[in-house]
Specification:
Chain lengths: ~725, ~170
């Protein structure tokens, strides 16, 4: 498969100069991308693609930091699309450039291709002193108007490129403390800022001690109070933190309501909701929902199950931050937002300014994989900076801000019904999924999705979200199983009036849906008395899916299962369009009912693999984060506040429960790149659930699998 | 508010004479007064390990203890690990095994492990887990970190065997 689908990014940015430019000062090649580094080292992958397709040393490739007005707007860095969007675009741009360059040189010097020798971007004509470089070519007037060719094969020509080292520059900077995060920005006369948050979502500021504000002013701390938005700003970061603590006890808040603490799964089932029918292909429709089919008990077996997952948080290790300067009526904002163009639009709306008045630059933050406080912080820093013209404001959230105010991954409920015929074939499948929205990134709702907007405006009216219908959006992501069930009933429920703020978190609805599907497949396999892996193969037509599962089996069969342990598997193709992934896990359980992860296996088919180390780290990270959600994580709250305020109150996985991880990649050269960042979490969660069942004989259908929950389930 | 006090700190072999509020935690002095940004603030509650550095060779959390309490001690931050522009064995192993994702927690993890190897050449699995009990990572770099540790142990074990034969 040689043809290259150039993907959506090039449809908008179709000029070579949108993606590649040439720096004549240092003889380097600059590549542009609209995707950002969020721990997945996408820059490294993109550098490899450009280096490989241009046949040039990777050290000559520089990735330009994302900045509005200069970088392509490729939407959010989300949905495991970075390599398939940006990578594919860069591949096409690089191949276009290289082909045109070769043609131009042959024509310019009127020589045959055998006389051409190209090394690291410089073409030399055999037997002459003539040479011509990539940089010379890019200087031609015509360069800036060259369009990228769609579906082009790379011209077959062997270029003398040196051995390309895949040195990851980012890692070298990280391990020496030189990698610069947004938190590390340092400008002359920069001011630090912190925010005093209300006690909970529904709180309005009644009063604040103005004497204390004056006193703080004398201590060089400025307090900004706008509506119910309070910030402290000063030169000394620690003094700013102390000021917030002093101010906290001086505030009186009016409560506009309690956090609803009715059982969340009852609310998911019973609250007002939008109900849509999801059809094969994963698209949702506003259509009548058919009743569930009833089958004759003598010839068929029907099973019903409910699977539940709680609210979980992004929980970045470094709390959100942003830096802004307001100068000459223009803003310059540094942000770790995963969608700088979209967040800029929302901030423009919130501040009532034009897009050309805001320049947003990306700076790395701590890994979060979704919509955390980054965008909120960018708006807050910009708002504060208006009061301090000409000064950089570096705003950092606290640990408590991050844990209590980020938009969580929604709690979710899956109600599944499956009917087997007497041969063990699934003849009917119904899956109703219930959750809050995963789609409140600022671009979607504009200013109202920026956390502090409502506190600044003192406007607390909550609008219902509108269900999205595109294939595999939010709640119905991976609701459509890849299995060849001919007779399915898939229902998406966007539930309203739920208690906590929610948005995109790694995998969105796929995590809960795949957990449910893959646990339920084991339940059905048991009834059919068929090995779970064979049972899956029996229900798959997709050859790549089958190969992934067979490879997983091969990997797992290499080691012997300890008699006191148990194994389980899970499988998914993320969004039925990104990578295929099968996961196996071997676990044990302590006398105290704690799950210990022993061994794990991941087999992935991500199309053509560009950067194996990057794929491995995404898969390992996905497995570890998914296992953490499965075993430990749940956001706790009462009527007055979020209780999971810190790491003591919100446990995540530690180094004491990391399994051995074996990664196997089915590399498909020439196939489109498929993202791997979000594919593992659902399968690993189900794999753990299935292993736990095999170990203790009890099927736990509600996450997380904490010691307490396991004990209470066993007692029941 | 606290008073400004004189404070003399030795960090990465250099002596700094500072005038700072007496209650300022060490991390703020290191990051803001001395512009050594490799040590990260993660929670300010001594729960996540991002702020780990070495005091007299041993891992110490810097987000809550006052800077003035560290007078007379040798402080090492991640910036001080390279000797003569050469990475430590652990840093080399981190590069080899790609042992960081976003990297925010990495400096704290590296400092905890450096402290471990300062204490024991050949730590056990329990020693390793114990040394990292304060270090959280959200991206899931754990497995690659443990691979890097294995590599360092294997190098040190081989050196030990070679020494026995000398």
């Amino acid at each position: 498969m040689n043809e290259l689908s150039t993907g959506p990014s090039i449809k908008v940015y179709n000029l070579l100069s949108n993606w590649i430019s040439f720096n004549n000062n240092n003889n380097k090649i600059k590549i542009f991308s609209g995707k950002v580094d969020i721990g997945q080292h996408i820059s490294m992958t993109l550098s490899i693609i450009a280096s490989r397709e241009l046949d040039i040393d990777i050290d000559k490739v520089e990735v330009v930091n994302l900045i509005t007005g200069k970088s392509p707007d490729e939407g959010f860095t989300a949905g495991s699309l970075s390599v398939s969007h940006s990578g594919t675009a860069l591949k096409a741009a690089s191949i276009t450039f290289r082909n045109l360059f070769i043609e131009y040189v042959l024509s310019k010097f009127n020589v045959e291709i055998d006389n051409l020798n190209i090394e690291n971007g410089i073409a030399k004509i055999s037997g002459t002193n003539h040479f011509f470089s990539y940089w010379d070519f890019a200087k031609l007037d015509t360069y800036k108007n060259i369009k990228i060719t769609e579906f082009i094969p790379k011209r077959n020509f062997d270029i003398n490129s040196k051995k390309k080292s895949n040195t990851n520059k980012t890692i070298r900077e990280i391990i020496t403390g030189k990698y610069e995060f947004i938190h590390d920005l340092n400008f002359p006369n920069m001011l630090h800022a912190r925010i005093l948050r209300p006690p909970n979502y529904l709180s309005k500021l009644k009063s604040i001690d103005n004497q204390l504000i004056s006193k703080l002013k004398n201590e060089n701390i400025k307090v900004l109070v706008i509506g119910s938005f309070i910030a402290a700003i000063g030169v000394d970061e620690y003094k700013v933190i102390q000021s917030i603590n002093r101010l906290r006890s001086s505030c009186i808040w009016e409560s506009l309501g309690d956090i609803k603490t009715t059982n969340i799964f009852d609310m998911l089932a019973n609250n007002k909701k939008d109900t849509l029918l999801v059809k094969a292909g994963g698209e949702a429709f506003h259509e009548n929902i058919p009743n569930k089919q009833i089958f004759d008990n003598k010839q068929f077996v029907t099973l019903n199950s409910e699977y539940k997952k709680p609210y979980i948080m992004h929980g970045s290790i470094g709390p959100s931050a942003a830096c802004s300067i307001f100068e000459n009526n223009r803003f310059k904002i540094f942000t770790h937002s995963q969608g700088i163009y979209q967040t800029r639009s929302a901030i423009c709306e919130a501040l009532n300014v034009k897009e050309q008045d805001i320049e947003m630059s990306f700076m790395p933050g701590a890994g979060c994989y979704g919509h955390n406080g980054a965008d909120d912080a960018a708006f807050e820093a910009a708002k504060i900076s208006i009061s301090f013209p000409g000064k950089y404001i570096l705003l950092k959230w606290t640990r408590e801000d991050e844990n209590c105010w980020e938009p969580y991954g929604s709690a979710a409920l899956s109600k599944i019904t499956g009917t087997l015929d007497l041969k063990g074939n699934i003849v009917y499948w119904s899956h109703e999924t219930f959750a809050d929205t995963f789609m409140t990134r600022p671009s979607n709702g504009g200013a109202v999705n920026l956390l502090s907007f409502k506190y600044i405006e003192n406007s607390f009216i909550k609008k219902n979200h509108i269900p999205r219908t595109a294939p595999h959006m939010g709640i119905h992501r991976n609701l459509d199983p890849l299995y060849n069930f001919k007779n399915t009933r898939l229902v998406k429920n966007l539930v309203h009036d739920l208690p906590l703020r929610t948005s995109a978190l790694r995998g969105l609805g796929a995590f809960g849906n795949v957990f449910a599907i893959e646990c339920f497949m084991n339940e059905l396999a048991e009834i059919a008395n068929i090995d779970p892996l064979i049972f899956r193969l029996n229900h798959l037509d997709d050859i790549r899916a089958k190969e992934v599962l067979l490879d997983l089996k091969k990997q797992m069969d290499k080691s012997i299962l300890d008699t006191s342990h148990a194994r389980g598997i899970g499988f998914a193709r993320y969004k039925n369009s990104a990578a295929y992934c099968a996961v196996g896990i071997e676990i044990s359980i302590s006398d105290d009912a704690e799950i210990k992860l022993i061994n794990s296996w991941i087999t992935v088919d991500a199309g053509e693999i560009v950067y194996p180390a990057g794929v491995t780290s995404q898969l390992e990270g996905g497995l570890i984060q998914g296992a953490s959600w499965t075993i430990y994580e749940q956001v706790e709250y009462d009527t007055k506040s979020i209780l999971s305020k810190d790491w003591d109150e919100y446990k995540i996985i530690g180094f004491d429960n990391i399994p051995n991880i074996n990664v196997s990649m089915i590399d498909r050269k020439g196939y489109p790149f498929l993202g791997v960042g979000e594919v593992v979490a659902g399968p690993i969660s189900a794999a753990i659930g299935n292993a736990l069942y095999n170990l203790i004989g009890v099927r736990l259908k509600t996450l997380p699998y904490t010691k307490v929950n396991i004990k209470s389930e066993i007692l029941n | 508010m606290s008073n400004e006090v004189k404070c003399k700190l030795k960090i990465n072999g250099l002596v700094y004479n500072l005038s700072i509020p007496s209650d300022t935690p060490l991390i703020f002095v290191i990051r803001n007064n001395l512009n050594l940004k490799g040590t990260k603030l993660g929670c300010g509650l001594e729960q996540c390990g991002s702020c780990t550095l070495l005091v007299d060779g041993k891992k110490t959390l810097s987000c809550n203890q006052n800077a003035i309490d560290f007078e007379g001690k040798e402080i090492t931050t991640i910036e001080g690990l390279e000797v003569n522009n050469k990475y430590s064995l652990l840093q080399e192993a981190f590069i080899e095994f790609n042992s960081a994702q976003c990297g925010y927690c990495s400096s704290g993890i590296i400092m905890s492990l450096t402290s471990l190897f300062n204490e024991k050449n050949i730590p056990t699995e329990n020693d390793i887990v114990k040394s990292l009990e304060n270090n959280l990572c959200r991206c899931g770099s754990h497995h690659s970190v443990l691979k890097a540790v294995e590599k360092v142990i294997s190098i040190l074990s081989n050196e030990k065997v070679e020494n026995q034969y000398e």
